[in-house]
Each structure stands twice: as C-alpha cells, then as structure tokens.
Specification:
With about 450 residues, this protein is α+β, with helices and mostly antiparallel strands. It has 15 helices and 17 strands.
C-alpha cells in the first residue's frame, strides 16, 4: 500500500531506516518494550540528531500531521500514547552523554539517555544526578523533563524542574530553541525552559539538556521506624528536618496494609520490623562523613520522647537495600490484585491523615470490598494510592477517581504530584487549576503550536 504524502516526505528527508511504517513500528515497539506497549500508529520516526527532529516537525507541521514524542514508555497517565492517525517520534537513538564537567558540576545529555545509565556515568566522576525513580532502568531524561518527574529524593534535591540548567527544544514548526546555558544565575527575561518542563510534549520536543550534578555522598544511614499515630509522624518529620538539616534525603510514609503486603511470605521481602503497628516511616540521611552515630542519637531521642515506638537501623548495605526494596517493589500489589487504580496526589502534610480516612470511608460506602494501599513521599507532601475495588469497568474506575480527587478540591493540593496529566487525568485538571490558569495554558499552546500537532489531546 502506498504511503501517505507526509510519510513519503519524511522518508525522502530522513531515509527508510529512520521512518518505520505502521506495521514495522508496532513490531519494533513490541520487540523493544514488550507486547503490552505495542502501538498502532501511522509511522514511527527514529531521529538520530536534533536536526532530524527539526526536519520531522517542520514536515509534519506543513501537513498538519499530529506527532507524539516518546521516551521509555514508562508513563502511567498515557502522556506518550499515540493512535493510528498519529506519528510517534522515539528519542531512543539520541542517547549521548557528554563528559561530566566536574568544575561546574553539570552534565549535558541527549533526551534519549536512560536515567540509570546517567547515574552510572556520573558516578564514575564522583557525582550523582539525584533524580531517582522506580522506572530508572527504562525511563529517559527527555520524558523525565517533559513530565517534571519527582521521585524518592525530592525532599532534599527537588523535582526535575530544580535539576535542569538548560534545554534545547524543537518547536512545532521545526525551530530549534537553544537554551543550553549552564549558568545558575541568568536574570535576562523569561526563563523559557520552564515552559517545556512538565509540558508533556505538547509545546515542543526536548532534545538536549544541561543537568545539575551534586557530589556523591560517601555515607548513608537508613532507618525503618514504627509509630503509634499520624500526629507523631508529623512531629518526627519536623524533628528530622531540624536535626539533620540538608542531610535528610528521604522520608517515606507507609500505611500498615502496604507494609504487610510488601513483606508477606510471597513478596520476596523479609519483615524488618513487626507488622502490627499503625504506621511506618522509612527515612534516610546522606553525607560526606559517617552518619550512623547521628541517626542513633536521633532515634534514641525520639524514642525516649515517645514519638516512635520502635526502629531498626540498617547496619550494612544489604540492610539498606532490603529496606528500600519494601518501599519500591510495588509490583506485588499488581500481582495480588486486578484491577489496580493508581494515584499520585500532593497535599499539605497536615491534611494527609484525614484525607486517607475520608477516601477509605467513601470507598467503603460504595464498594462491598476494597483495598487501599497508601504510601509515599511524606517529606514533600506526595501520597500514592493503589486501590482495588473488586470491579473492572469504566464506571467503577471513574467512581474511584472521583472518590480520590473530590476531597482535594477544598484544600491546597494537586491531582498529579509526579505523573502528569496525559489522557488519564485531564478530566480532573480543573480540580487543581483555575479556569484562568487553564485559559493561559491554552493560549501558550496555541501560540507555540497553532496547528495543534504536538501531542494533541493531552492535558486539555
């Protein structure tokens, strides 16, 4: 069957090796990423350079052809989902990492670099790139930036927005916007890179980035803590911030249902502390000097003050790995239950306990049985909920979403702390953004992408 004119033009400009037809695209995605991520698209473009991306978008804009940027396809809100009328653009071949600049503490990378590979590269120079996600083995830097990823160490280092010094972005008409300036202070008008961080590919395609690095901590001290109530967890967090200062890297909260499931006999994890407590905290500090004594003093103090009821301190790296595996091995929830509706929300720490109580109470009113596994980054106000209600249909999914999001309307909050909006959450965007904000976002979209070719239908 003859290709569409836009496909012919792309093949002519880029070559057949970089433009795969619909059938070949589906086959390739299935082989590389697994059959579950196979897609039915008009074509798959595999650019090898910024110029390739620019040529692709220029041609697609001329034909008003919709495009969907793709990275590691680990997004959970369908931000990178493409359909049969769209062209997918995978950045996987643009995976170069420039030499680490040890003096100025930054690294320049292409958008297709896998996060874990970046970790390994900068580690050789004695630095870390502090973004840390469960999907680090497959997610790509361009996608991390486009979704403003958060992760396990945002309490100390911030989210992706805080780690980007400069960007190179290709706009919808093929214009290359070079903002690869590594200076920390640059007060020269609008900081355009922030338009594209968190934009989910709707304004342009991120092709390169300059990222902040920080010296690798030489020592870690990690503790698993049990508490009697949520008020004590708030006090524990405040005391940890004061006692440890910027050494406090992570402060994760786990509700008992989560801890019990992730340490049951089928989980592959062992219990590091008894499973009959009302609440758990996993906390970690990191620094240049030995920290075990500091953590020991802190735990002794909060234990004597009746803020915690028990704690286990990691004595070796294997212990630390085991502690974090309990927090990160959430696939166990998916193995145990089907379906599982997943959520990530932001709200003030002071509102967390009542929020979870409200969600549980409303789930109980509407479903005969349900499971709500609550956990997350308490240190930065981000909760994750993984909910099974025994029903797998559109009505049940929408009802669970309403139950989760409705309580957020009356408090400062966000329906998406880390994952973005994509297709899955756009119905609920107005719960976190005012009509005026949404109108301005639409205006920016219309200005930069008047033909609406960039990831259309996402966010709005």
């Amino acid at each position: 069957m003859k290709n569409l004119p836009v496909i012919e033009k792309l093949i002519e400009a880029l070559g057949e090796q970089k433009v795969l037809s619909s059938e070949k695209a589906a086959e390739r995605i299935a082989n590389v990423y697994g059959k579950a991520r196979s897609l039915d698209v008009r074509a798959l473009v595999l650019p090898a350079s910024t110029n390739d991306v620019a040529v692709t978008l220029k041609i697609c804009n001329e034909y008003k052809q919709a495009v969907v940027p793709q990275g590691g396809l680990s997004n959970v809100v369908n931000s990178a989902t493409a359909n049969k009328n769209e062209i997918a653009i995978s950045l996987e071949k643009m995976n170069a990492i420039k030499e680490v600049d040890r003096i100025n503490q930054f690294v320049e990378v292409e958008a297709g670099v896998i996060l874990e590979q970046l970790h390994e590269k900068v580690k050789e120079s004695g630095f870390i790139f502090p973004l840390d996600l469960g999907a680090k083995g497959s997610c790509m830097i361009g996608g991390n930036i486009a979704t403003n990823a958060g992760g396990l160490q945002a309490l100390r280092y911030g989210v992706m927005r805080n780690l980007v010094l400069g960007l190179e972005v290709v706009l919808a008409d093929g214009t290359i916007l070079n903002n690869l300036n590594p200076v920390l202070k640059n007060n020269t008008g609008y900081d355009l890179k922030h338009l594209f961080i968190g934009s989910e590919g709707t304004l342009g395609i991120i092709t390169r980035a300059i990222l902040k690095l920080t010296p690798a901590p030489a020592f870690f001290s990690t503790a698993f803590i049990a508490l009697e109530n949520f008020d004590n967890s708030k006090e524990l967090l405040n005391r940890a911030k004061i006692f440890f200062g910027d050494k406090l890297t992570s402060f994760e909260i786990l509700w008992p249902a989560f801890y019990k499931l992730l340490t049951n006999e089928n989980s592959g994890n062992k219990k590091v502390i008894a499973d009959n407590y009302p609440l758990y905290v996993l906390t970690e500090i990191a620094g240049a000097a030995a920290l075990e004594s500091q953590m020991e003093i802190f735990l002794e103090t909060v234990l004597n003050d009746n803020i915690i009821v028990d704690a286990v301190l990691a004595q070796r790296q294997e212990d630390r790995k085991q502690f974090w595996q309990i927090r990160e091995k959430i696939d166990q929830i998916l193995i145990r239950h089907n379906p599982v509706f997943t959520f990530d929300v932001s709200l003030p720490v002071s509102e967390m306990e009542q929020y979870v109580i409200t969600v549980d109470a409303t789930l109980k009113e509407n479903f005969d049985t349900f499971y709500n596994y609550a956990f997350g980054h308490m240190g930065d106000g981000n909760l994750h909920l993984m909910i099974n209600c025994g029903e797998e249909n559109t009505d049940a999914k929408e009802l669970v979403e309403k139950i989760v999001y409705a309580p957020l309307q009356s408090i400062p909050s966000s329906v998406s702390a880390e994952h973005g909006i994509g297709l899955s959450k756009k119905k609920w965007l107005s719960f976190s953004r005012s009509p005026e904000e949404i109108a301005v976002m639409r205006s920016i979209k219309n200005l930069l992408d008047p033909n609406n070719i960039m990831n259309p239908g996402k966010i709005f």
